[in-house]
Each structure stands twice: as C-alpha cells, then as structure tokens.
Amino acid sequence: MQFSKMHGLGNDFMVVDAVTQNVFFSPELIRRLADRHLGVGFDQLLVVEPPYDPELDFHYRIFNADGSEVAQCGNGARCFARFVRLKGLTNKRDIRVSTANGRMVLTVTDDDLVRVNMGEPNFEPSAVPFRANKAEKTYIMRAAEQTILCGVVSMGNPHCVIQVDDVDTAAVETLGPVLESHERFPERANIGFMQVVKREHIRLRVYERGAGETQACGSGACAAVAVGIQQGLLAEEVRVELPGGRLDIAWKGPGHPLYMTGRRYMSTTDLFIYEATRGRTAGNTHGA
C-alpha cells in the first residue's frame, strides 16, 4: 500500500488512496500506525474512497489516532484536496466529497490556498450531542473541581469552546481530557481554548477527541469562531492563530455556511506498508 504523509499547520495525516488500491484498516492497525515511535506517526488517518453518489467526486473518511472513525476534520480536508489533485485522481478545482455526516466542497484557489465550505454551524444540543435542556449561548459545567463557562457547537463533529485570558497558560493538558470525556458529551468532544485578541483575531489551542492536543485543528478553529460570533465577541471574518500557524475563518451568521481558508503542505510521499493491503478499508461497501 502506498500512502502520503501530509500536514496542515502541523496537524499531520497519513493519507491513503483507496480508489486505485484495496486497503483494510482495523482499529488496532490504525493505533499501531499512529505510534510516533514504532509506526508512521500521525494525528489522523485520511482515506480517499470512490463516491457513493455520481454527483460527487470522492468519499472522505477520517480515523483518529486511537482508531475511532470521525465525521469531520477541516485541516484534513485541505490536505485531501491537495492529495487527490497531486495523485491525478482529479484535476477539478471544486472538489465535491461526502463524509460520514454530509457533503463538503473543497476549492483550490489560484494562489494555492484551499477554501473549505464547512456548512452551517449547528448549536442545537442534540446535534452536538450535548446534554442540556435547551440551547444556550453559554453553558455552565463542572469539571476538575472547577466551574467552566463554555459554548458548544457541531461542525459535523462535537466542539466545546472555552474563553481564556492567555492560551499559553491555559490548562489544556489537564482540563482538556476531563472535558473531552465529560458525561454531558455522550460521544466525547473536541475542546477549544480561545483567547480573543480583538474582534478579528483569536489565538487557539485545541485538545482533539481521540488525538490529544494537536498543532492545529481546522474544525476547532471554525467552532471557536462560530461560538465567538454567536456570543457577540467576534467579527464575521477572523484570523485564527494556532500553534502550527494561521487559518482564516468567515461566517455571516445563521442561515449561511462557514468557510475556512488556509494553505496545505506535503512533508513526505509514496511510502509503502505491506500489512494494510490484505483487504479493504474498514466498512467500505463499494468498489475501489
């Protein structure tokens, strides 16, 4: 099996073409491949599959380093767009893909950026999912013997956003895992720690569900801006500064899709692992 190692702002991925080759990934194999000492090492595994719908170009699957499958990864989507063009799987600039919970359009611009239509943020607790009696702009939670004020939103995956005074001193390593698995998030959640610099600029660290803190989280950046706009803290266009670099997020508010723009980078490519070629991608029910 051939694969590429890619990263978006330091958020790194193993990307596999399951259109032209048959592959199989068990959760155990994914965990071993994700190991940075004994395996390939990555935050997420991205798998490019043939489309289920003839109107689409590809099906986009995402697996966390712990082997769990998830429905969304914004940084991964940018790398996905670069990968399918680089490998000659398409030459389109507007790439239409399905995911586990919907559809996305990935646009490669003339200045070598990738713009992703992330869809409309969903603040309904049942969509996140988050245990609450009704939708609120701010929720009060108890975690690690602290009272936490947060916003929650679904970007196709669950997010909790906490405003902090300084991301450099935020308790990401201790509070992140406690909130990720909090009982009010039945499917766990990605936890964002957001510092508002000004209405057009935030700093952000994200503790990702199933991966821990990463250098960047695209859907986390989108979630932070969506929550910040909902709470009246941010403008419609925001620069998000993550440990790995910058993303630009734009959202006009309810009734409109949210857009994420950023560069994508490839660090290595065309590596080979024999073990994963013994079957098909886990759960794949259509031709490769």
UniProtKB/TrEMBL annotation:
InterPro entries: DAP_epimerase_AS, DAP_epimerase_DapF. It comes from the Bacteria. Keywords: Amino-acid biosynthesis, Cytoplasm, Isomerase, Lysine biosynthesis. Pfam families: DAP_epimerase. Its main location: cytoplasm. GO terms for biological process: lysine biosynthetic process via diaminopimelate. PROSITE patterns: DAP_EPIMERASE (PS01326). Substrate binds at N11, Q44, N64, G74, N75, N157, N190, E208, R209, G218, S219. It catalyses: (2S,6S)-2,6-diaminopimelate = meso-2,6-diaminopimelate. Homodimer. NCBIfam families: DapF. This is Diaminopimelate epimerase. It comes from Escherichia coli. The gene is dapF.
